[in-house]
Design goal:
214 residues, alpha+beta, Endonuclease, Chain A, 2 domains, seven-stranded mixed beta sheet, two-stranded antiparallel ribbon, 8 helices, 43% helix, 24% strand
Length: 214
């Protein structure tokens, strides 16, 4: 099993801290700090959860208590824990690249059903702090369940060009595909700037031809 030293090192590579970890995993911050100060031992189930979260976020654990970043172009995420790791990656990538976010084929009930409420609130608060940040979201015409209107603009598209099968997410130099089936989420994130930029060109062509909802 991994050690608290590796957890701290992994968080540092991701430019995150223990508070971010606690929020992402809905952990009590005092309890988490007790693990690191040796006041209490980490239950194996909780340690496995932390390890999985860090691995989903791009951390690789190596021998002699080492850690490194996963440089793979394609990263897979799955389930609620994977969704939190993906959204954390969105947040940190936007901070690093200082670029807009373009999201198409969005039904925000899927996000609400698969993302912990506390983390979703944390995510929106952190995005709101980023200077000159822009988020554009394409939803189906008539959809009025818009949870991120404080940090994003929405435009509606006709049902015949709205896909129920997948959501596309361009953020920074990455392009992701999200599918929601059987009350779960599967995500593929591609770290490739030309692909992300090409998607933005197509996205903005659709965006410019439809009216702002909010």
């Amino acid at each position: 099993m991994i050690t608290t030293r590796q957890i701290d090192a992994g968080l540092a590579l991701l430019e995150l801290n223990r508070s971010d970890l606690a929020t992402s995993l809905a952990m009590n911050k005092s309890t988490l700090n007790a693990y690191f100060t040796g006041q209490t031992s980490i239950p194996s189930s909780r340690l496995a959860q932390v390890q999985k979260w860090l691995e989903n976020a791009g951390i690789v654990f190596i021998e002699d208590e080492g850690v490194k970043l996963n440089k793979a172009e394609i990263v897979k995420y799955a389930g609620e824990q994977g969704f939190v790791s993906f959204m954390t990656d969105v947040l940190e990538t936007v901070k690093r690249c200082n670029s807009d976010v373009c999201i198409s084929n969005v039904d925000e009930t899927d996000f609400e059903n698969n993302l912990p409420k506390e983390f979703a609130e944390h995510y929106r608060q952190e995005l709101s702090k980023i200077k000159d940040f822009t988020s554009k979201i394409l939803v189906k015409e008539g959809d009025d369940f818009l949870t991120a209107d404080s940090i994003a603009q929405y435009r509606g598209v006709p049902a015949d060009i709205f896909s129920e099968d997948a959501t596309f997410y361009a953020y920074g130099d990455k392009l992701a595909l999200l599918t929601f089936h059987d009350d779960s989420v599967q995500i593929l994130s591609l770290h490739n700037k030309p692909f992300a930029d090409s998607f933005r060109v197509m996205f903005n062509a659709v965006w410019s031809n439809h009216e702002v909802i909010k």
